[in-house]
Each structure stands twice: as structure tokens, then as C-alpha cells.
């Protein structure tokens, strides 16, 4: 993609700055491993998007051999950048048409860095043009991983015999190990420079297959480490030791305020002192606890921190997340919440001591000795910007005295109407002075709120004593140091907030821009946020608002809030980090949450390797008092609250049935060989019952689930526990047919497969209905022959219940959740259509008198 270079337009031809993306297809030479850079210079800042509003007439072009004049004319030094070193290097190109398609010039040095010219005589991805680039010159060695150099450069191609004939282009770039070259794919049209008459001259620019390329390189100092940075893979923690805050949508204003408060050590210490160790404390201090967690994570996390927990504690909805709120109002609400929670704790009165000053509103008669006044606290001050050129002007405006006279005289008690002076004076200023600059105000001509982008200066050191009452205590100087500048860039309807803050009392400024933290200079924090006109080298310019895309001579980025700290309280307000310990419970709790979050993240990544298996045992069946076998829908419930709920296991899909059985044996404390899993299936009547045992030890759980389970219910297993013989060995029912030789079904012939299946022992579950308690309980399971009559179940029941022989029973089959059917004692189980997993419910047989008695006690029985 071609990118026009607005910095390089000259009368000698149009400049096009383009990333070089390799050679034309079909090239017959080896390219170097690191291709030509593909990143364009950073043009995101409003200050870099400047157009000349009053272009002067171009004087006669200098000669290409007049290096100083060429540099001054086409590559003047930028007033905002300090030069580290400059170099000029010329390379005589001969045998142009015979050169390889990719050619390097000799290595030269500037600021200790090696450089060279990369030349494509036949063009690079633009066959009609020749291509030139400036490239780092480490040649066979790749630069160190953290190597970089910020350079302005100009490439000039000229006729060595006539230095008035040339083509020149200018660019700037942050050269790095990964982006080691930058320049011009369409440096000049080949037909133009080889033409017999170049641009009105009587000779070609490339004459006799020869030309001269001169490179001008100016390496700039980079005090912040991010000049022209593209911020790809930028690591705030690594570069600055601090992390930013993620923007939820339109919470950049919140992020700026929170970073300012976090870096105010005394404030953070007071927040940490709010009790949040118990669940009760956290419930009544949700915002305080959320702020504690946020601050601790800003200290310890390696990447940007989310503010969602904090905004959730505010009760904000999604709509409020995407609306910019008033910073002053938000600050006051937060302070009120925190101050309320600090009452009765060691942090009580900490916030007022930091942020509260006192001002006096007065009415003082001129001609009589009478004054009416009221002293009140202030947490912050709103200062006028419109009509004020500086912070001192705003304070003078704030305490400006109004004279009440004529028709506006003051009615003084006991003195009647009197000439008087009305005003405000400060009695004290707080340790931390929050100043809200009124950048937005109502414009009566436009009948709308507008942003005030006028120039407004503020100092790094500010003396507030001139604005104090004469009677105020001035024993301790009221000298303040600038700690933070909160900036708004844009206009009333579209914009962005970020902050310049000092993490240390005598340290440098850093820029906190949502999730990114970078070093900043004092000039970037102060002068560049005064607002006012765009000017470069004293010339009025136009800048483009990066959010509205409109051009204006006024800067759209300017300070809207200032934070000053009293010089005499700096040690108290900005203590060392070691003196701001977090609550003891907080690190452990957050470490647990991070471990859990990491576990869940890993589980998500490995989810395709695992499957969920629901496991029920006879213990669950016995604890269940409802219809069907097990409450499968309750899986994962607390065992104390729902003892019948099956247990959910997260298991590898590749686990075999054999390994699964061994794992369950160990988990349930059973002896080896005493458990076997049964597949649970959904029946057409809506019940879930065991269907058959899993007898394929090498089958994987995934294969078993795909073959036997249903999509809706997932993979469910019932673990059957075997009975033991006298020697303690497990007894499993034989899978062989149980019919006698004289059975009428065989008739002396070999049994069919269906007959064999019909005569295999079947597993039956028993439930007991306690008539007195009107309660249904699972008892366990038994094995019966399909040829047994229903009445043969009775001895098993009497044994399990411990009842004497002769107790009369009633047997019912639980067919589905809302339907049971009384069984006929003389019918065989196969005739009653009893199969594996069926449930037989029994109760004692009741006489008519017993039935009447129970109905009297239990009318609904």
C-alpha cells in the first residue's frame, strides 16, 4: 500500500512513502531473511497531524552538494526533538543497469549505529519506479533484540556532474531489530530519471549509467523510550514497572482518576486499612473491597487490570459503562463511600486530612463595622479557564471581590442598606489539591455546551499562599508540586481521557493511557496540554482532531484536572512502597482466585480432551426418596444438601473402561474387582435405567459414550457393587442361562439367542414404601431369574428388611414417574415384562381396619 508523505513534497517531484514488501515475483536472487519494514510512521497523535496554513513561496532550490542548505531546507530540525547525532554520506552508483536487483551501499555510522542504503535498481514491487531505503547496517549480524534508533532521514539522488539536478525525499522512522529498513518504493519514475532531458534540463539525471545517492541521517534522543513506537507487543510492566487499566467502553475518564488515586500513596494506604477480612465486612464495603483488590492487582499483575468489579460495585449497568461520566462527581461519590466505611477504623479522618481545605464566603460592609461570613469545607475546586490565561489568573478570578452598591446594596442587620464587599477567601488548602478546570461551558451564541480549547498555563511548582486570608496560619509554606495532569483530547461529543502522573515524589512523569503506560517528559505533561494554538517554529498551524477528524488551529488535547501535592507533606503523601502494605488476607485470596482462573483457562483449552461422566452408586439410590432411580438432574449438588445427587467427573476421553473402573474403585474405597459400571439409557417412558454392564475393558470412555449414551442425557454410569462369598471374594451373577433341562422353553433342544437372553439373570431394584411415614426409600438391588414368579421376590425382601416369615406383601412395578402397576404374584417376571434396571416397590399388606386407621391419620393416603 502506498502512503503519501506530506513531509516531503518539493518542486522536484512528488514523494511517495511506501513500505517495501519484497521483490517482484520471478526475481532470480536470494533475498535477505528480514524483509523490508512494513510499518508506517506513527501518526496517531494530534500534534503530528499538522498541515501548513500559510505556505511561503519556495526560494530557489539549493544544490545537492550544499549539504547544510539541503538539510535546512528539506529536513529542518524539529523543535520538540533533541538531536543525538547527524551524518551525511554519499554513495557513487555506477553501472546502474548491471547491478543486482537488490543492492546495498557501503556501511556508514551515525550515533554509533551502522547504516547503509538499500537500492532496487529495477524497482521493488513497482516496476515503473526505482526504490531506495535507509537500512540498519549490521550486515551479517542481526541487531540486538532491544536495539532501536529514531531517525529523520533524507535520500537525495542527483547527477554528480550537475548538483542542481536531483530528486529528494524525507521520512522519519523508529528503526528496530524487526523493522530495520524504511524508505520509498516509488522513489522516482525510471523513465523520468533516464530521460535525455530531466525536468527541463538538457541531460538525464542518471547519466552514463551513473548517479550519486546522498543520505542525510539525524538520530534523535528518545527520553521516553516510545518515540514513534508502533506499540506492537509493547509490555508496560517490562518497560515501566507499572500496568494500565482496561477500558470497558467509555471508562477512560475513570481509569485516569483511579491511576491518580492509586499513585497517591497515602490514599492507597487508607483504602487498604478499611476492614474487609470477613464476608460481612465485604458485603457492607463492596466498593472499598473492590478498590482494594484493584489497587493490589495494579501493584502485582503483569498486564492491564479490569475495572469491571469496581464498576459493578457502583451498581452501574452496561449503559453507564458506555457513557462518559462527570469526573468531579464520580470522585466525590467515591470519596463519600470510602469515608463512610473508614469511620471507626484506623483510617478514620484520613481522607479529610488529605483532601479537605477551608474557604470563607463573606459580606463585609465598607462604611460600618459589620461582616457576615460562613466557613465551609471543600474537597476540590472548579476553576474558570475561559478568560484566564493561567492557574494564577483562575485563583485571582476565584477570590475576586464584588462591590455591592447603588441599587445592589447589602441589607446589614442593624445597619440597613450598606455598601459592601462580597467575596471568597481561602483559610487553608489541603495536602492534596484537586483542581477541576472548566474546559466545558455553555456558549450562549451557539446555545450549546462547548469545549474551551484556549491556552491555559499551569506551573510545576505553585505557591497558593497569595490566595489565603490574611489571618490564615502560614507557618507551614503553601508550596505545591504538580503530581498529575488529567487530559481530555477531543471535543464535547467525542474524545478520550488519559493522565500524566508522577509515581514518585521527585520522579518523572508517566503517561497512563488506559491499558498502556509509557514514560513522558515534563514538557509532554505540561506545555503540550496547555491548549491554545498549534505552532511550529513560531508558525501558526492546523491540527486534526483525532476523534472528530476536523481541522482546527486550536489544540484539542488539554488539561481538565490538575493534582498538586503540598511540598511540606510530600513524604507523608508519597511514602515508600514498603510502607503501604496491603491487607494480610488480600494476597492469599487473590492468589487463590488467580490459580482458579488459570485452572479454568487450562480446562477450557483442554476441554476437547475431556468429557463429563456422571456416576451413581447404590448409596445414592438408597438416599433417594423420589420417583425413578437417581435424580440425575441434580448432579454436582452439595452432598450434604442432596445426598442422592450423582457425582460429576471430568475424565480424559481416551481413558479405558478398565482404568475408569480402577479409578472409581479407589475413589469409593472399594476392594479390587468389586465394582462394575452399567450404562444408563433413556427409556421411551421418560425414565433413566441401567441397560447393561460395560464389559469391554479396552474400550475408551469416548467410544462407550458414542456407542451407548444419548445426546440429551450425556454419559451416565451406575456402579454396581458385588456381594461377597464366605471367602470375601466378589460374587457376580452368571451370564449363562438359568433354565433347567426340563424347562418347557427348551423342549430338549438347544436354546435360541433370544431364549438365552430371556433366561439370563436380571438386576431388579427394590423400593420400600413406608405406609406409616408415607415415605419411599431405595433399598438396593437383587438378581432374579426371568422364569421366577413375582412371589419369589418376597423372601429377598423379608431378608433385607429383617422381617419374619409370613409377613404379607404387596408388590408394584414402578413403570414411570407418575404410574405404578400392581404385580400378579403367580406371573413370572418375564411374563410381567421385568428387565434389567426395573424398579419394584413393595409395602406391607394392610387389613381393612389398618387402611381405615391410616386414612384417618393421613387423609390423602
From TrEMBL:
Q: Compositional bias (Polar residues) at which positions?
A: 1-13
Q: What is its main location?
A: nucleus
| Regions that span the bilayer | none
Q: Which GO terms describe its molecular function?
A: cysteine-type deubiquitinase activity; endopeptidase activity; metal-dependent deubiquitinase activity
Domain MATH per the UniProt entry, residue ranges: 86-217
Stretches assigned to the USP domain: 243-567
Q: Does the keyword Nucleus apply?
A: yes
Q: Where is the composition biased (Acidic residues)?
A: 44-55
Q: What is its EC number?
A: 3.4.19.12
A GO cellular component annotated for this chain's UniProt record is:
cytosol
Instruction: List, alphabetically, the InterPro entries matched.
Output: MATH/TRAF_dom, Papain-like_cys_pep_sf, Peptidase_C19, Peptidase_C19_UCH, TRAF-like, USP, USP7_ICP0-binding_dom, USP_CS
Return the Low complexity bias intervals.
733-744
Q: Which is an annotated Pfam family here?
A: UCH
Which Gene3D superfamilies does this entry report, sorted A to Z? Apoptosis, Tumor Necrosis Factor Receptor Associated Protein 2, Chain A, Cysteine proteinases, Phosphatidylinositol 3-kinase Catalytic Subunit, Chain A, domain 1
What reaction does this enzyme carry out catalytically? Thiol-dependent hydrolysis of ester, thioester, amide, peptide and isopeptide bonds formed by the C-terminal Gly of ubiquitin (a 76-residue protein attached to proteins as an intracellular targeting signal)
Q: According to the UniProt record, where is the region Disordered? A: 1-64, 728-749
Query: Might you name a Gene Ontology BP term for this protein?
Result: regulation of protein stability
Q: Among its keywords, does the record have Hydrolase?
A: yes
Keywords for the protein's UniProt record, in alphabetical order:
Hydrolase, Nucleus, Protease, Thiol protease, Ubl conjugation pathway
Q: Where in the cell is it found?
A: Nucleus
Alphabetized SMART domains for the sequence: MATH
Q: Which PROSITE patterns match?
A: MATH, USP_1, USP_2, USP_3
State the similarity comment: Belongs to the peptidase C19 family.
Q: What is this protein called?
A: Ubiquitin carboxyl-terminal hydrolase
**Species this chain originates from:** Hortaea werneckii (Black yeast)
Amino acid at each position: 500500500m502506498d502512503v503519501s508523505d506530506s513531509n516531503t513534497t518539493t518542486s522536484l517531484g512528488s514523494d511517495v512513502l511506501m513500505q517495501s514488501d519484497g521483490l517482484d515475483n520471478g526475481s532470480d536472487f536470494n533475498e535477505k531473511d528480514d524483509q523490508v519494514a512494513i510499518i508506517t510512521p506513527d501518526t496517531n497523535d494530534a500534534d503530528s497531524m499538522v498541515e501548513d496554513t500559510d505556505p511561503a513561496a519556495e526560494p530557489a532550490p539549493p544544490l545537492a552538494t550544499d549539504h547544510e542548505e539541503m538539510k535546512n531546507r528539506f529536513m529542518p530540525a524539529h523543535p520538540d526533538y533533541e538531536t543525538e547525532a547527524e551524518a551525511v554520506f554519499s554513495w557513487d552508483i555506477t553501472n546502474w543497469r548491471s547491478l543486482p536487483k537488490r543492492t546495498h551501499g557501503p556501511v556508514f555510522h551515525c550515533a554509533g549505529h551502522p547504516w547503509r542504503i538499500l537500492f532496487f535498481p529495477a524497482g521493488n514491487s513497482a516496476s515503473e519506479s526505482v526504490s531506495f531505503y535507509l537500512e540498519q547496517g549490521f550486515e551479517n549480524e542481526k541487531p540486538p533484540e532491544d536495539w532501536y534508533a529514531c531517525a529523520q532521514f533524507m535520500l537525495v539522488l542527483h547527477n554528480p556532474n550537475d548538483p542542481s539536478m536531483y530528486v529528494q525525499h524525507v521520512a522519519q522512522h523508529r528503526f528496530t531489530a524487526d523493522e530495520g529498513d524504511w524508505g520509498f518504493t516509488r522513489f522516482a519514475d525510471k523513465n523520468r530519471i533516464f530521460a535525455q532531458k530531466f525536468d527541463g534540463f538538457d541531460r538525464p539525471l542518471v547519466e552514463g549509467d551513473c548517479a550519486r545517492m546522498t543520505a542525510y541521517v539525524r538520530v534523535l534522543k528518545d527520553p521516553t523510550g516510545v518515540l514513534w513506537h508502533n506499540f506492537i507487543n509493547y509490555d508496560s510492566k517490562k518497560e515501566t514497572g507499572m500496568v494500565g487499566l482496561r477500558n470497558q467502553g467509555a471508562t477512560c475518564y475513570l481509569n485516569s482518576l483511579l491511576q491518580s488515586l492509586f499513585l497517591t500513596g497515602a490514599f492507597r494506604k487508607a483504602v487498604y486499612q478499611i476492614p474487609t477480612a470477613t464476608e460481612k465486612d465485604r458485603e457492607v464495603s463492596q466498593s472499598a473491597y473492590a478498590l482494594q483488590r484493584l489497587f493490589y492487582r495494579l501493584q502485582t499483575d503483569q498486564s492491564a487490570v479490569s475495572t469491571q468489579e469496581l464498576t459493578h460495585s457502583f451498581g452501574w449497568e452496561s449503559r453507564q459503562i458506555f457513557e462518559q461520566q462527570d469526573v468531579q462527581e464520580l470522585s466525590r461519590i467515591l470519596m463519600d463511600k470510602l469515608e463512610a466505611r473508614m469511620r471507626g477504623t484506623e483510617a478514620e479522618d484520613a481522607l479529610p486530612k488529605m483532601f479537605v481545605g477551608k474557604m470563607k464566603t463573606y459580606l463585609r460592609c465598607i462604611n460600618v463595622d459589620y461582616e457576615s461570613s460562613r466557613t465551609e469545607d471543600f474537597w476540590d475546586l472548579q476553576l474558570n479557564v475561559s478568560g484566564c490565561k493561567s492557574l494564577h489568573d483562575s485563583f485571582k478570578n476565584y477570590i475576586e471581590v464584588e462591590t455591592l452598591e447603588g441599587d445592589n446594596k447589602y441589607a446589614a442587620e442593624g445597619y440597613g442598606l450598606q455598601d459592601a464587599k462580597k467575596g471568597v477567601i481561602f483559610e487553608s488548602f489541603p495536602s492534596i489539591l484537586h483542581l477541576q478546570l472548566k474546559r466545558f461551558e455553555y456558549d450562549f451564541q451557539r446555545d450549546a455546551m462547548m469545549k474551551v480549547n484556549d491556552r491555559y498555563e499551569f506551573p510545576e511548582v505553585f505557591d497558593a499562599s497569595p490566595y489565603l486570608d490574611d489571618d490564615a496560619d502560614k507557618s507551614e509554606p503553601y508550596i505545591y508540586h504538580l503530581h498529575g495532569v488529567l487530559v481530555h483530547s477531543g471535543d464535547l461529543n467525542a474524545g478520550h481521557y488519559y493522565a500524566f502522573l508522577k509515581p514518585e515524589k521527585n520522579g518523572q512523569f508517566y503517561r497512563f493511557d488506559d491499558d498502556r503506560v509509557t514514560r513522558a517528559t515534563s514538557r509532554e505533561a505540561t506545555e503540550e496540554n496547555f491548549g491554545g494554538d498549534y505552532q511550529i517554529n513560531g508558525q501558526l498551524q492546523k491540527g486534526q482532531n483525532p476523534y472528530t477528524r476536523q481541522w482546527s488551529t486550536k489544540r484539542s488535547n488539554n488539561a481538565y484536572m490538575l493534582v498538586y501535592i503540598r511540598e511540606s507533606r510530600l513524604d507523608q503523601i508519597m511514602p515508600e512502597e514498603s510502607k503501604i502494605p496491603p491487607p494480610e488476607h488480600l494476597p492469599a485470596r487473590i492468589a487463590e482466585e488467580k490459580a482458579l482462573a488459570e485452572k479454568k483457562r487450562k480446562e477450557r483449552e483442554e476441554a476437547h480432551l475431556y468429557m463429563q461422566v456422571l456416576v451413581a452408586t447404590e448409596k445414592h439410590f438408597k438416599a433417594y426418596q423420589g420417583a425413578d432411580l437417581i435424580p440425575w438432574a441434580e448432579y454436582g449438588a452439595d452432598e450434604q444438601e442432596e445426598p442422592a445427587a450423582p457425582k460429576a467427573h471430568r475424565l480424559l476421553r481416551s481413558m479405558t473402561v478398565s482404568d475408569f473402573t480402577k479409578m472409581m474403585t479407589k475413589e469409593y474405597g472399594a476392594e479390587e474387582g468389586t465394582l462394575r459400571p452399567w450404562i444408563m439409557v433413556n427409556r421411551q417412558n421418560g425414565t433413566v435405567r441401567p441397560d447393561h454392564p460395560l464389559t469391554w475393558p479396552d474400550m475408551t470412555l469416548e467410544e462407550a459414550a458414542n456407542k451407548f449414551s444419548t445426546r440429551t442425557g450425556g454419559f451416565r454410569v451406575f456402579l454396581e457393587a458385588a456381594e461377597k462369598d464366605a471367602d470375601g471374594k466378589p460374587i457376580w451373577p452368571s451370564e449363562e442361562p438359568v433354565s433347567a433341562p426340563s424347562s418347557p422353553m427348551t423342549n430338549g433342544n438347544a436354546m435360541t439367542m433370544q431364549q438365552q437372553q430371556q433366561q439370563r439373570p436380571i438386576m431388579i431394584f427394590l423400593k420400600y414404601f413406608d405406609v406409616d411415614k408415607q415415605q419411599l426409600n431405595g433399598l438396593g438391588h437383587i438378581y432374579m431369574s426371568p422364569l421366577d414368579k413375582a412371589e419369589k421376590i418376597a423372601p429377598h425382601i423379608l431378608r433385607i428388611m429383617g422381617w419374619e416369615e409370613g409377613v404379607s406383601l404387596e408388590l408394584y412395578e414402578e413403570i414411570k414417574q407418575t404410574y405404578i402397576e400392581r404385580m400378579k404374584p403367580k406371573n413370572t417376571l418375564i411374563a410381567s415384562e421385568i428387565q434389567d434396571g426395573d424398579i419394584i416397590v413393595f409395602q406391607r399388606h394392610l387389613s381393612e381396619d389398618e387402611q381405615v386407621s391410616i386414612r384417618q391419620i393421613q387423609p390423602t393416603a
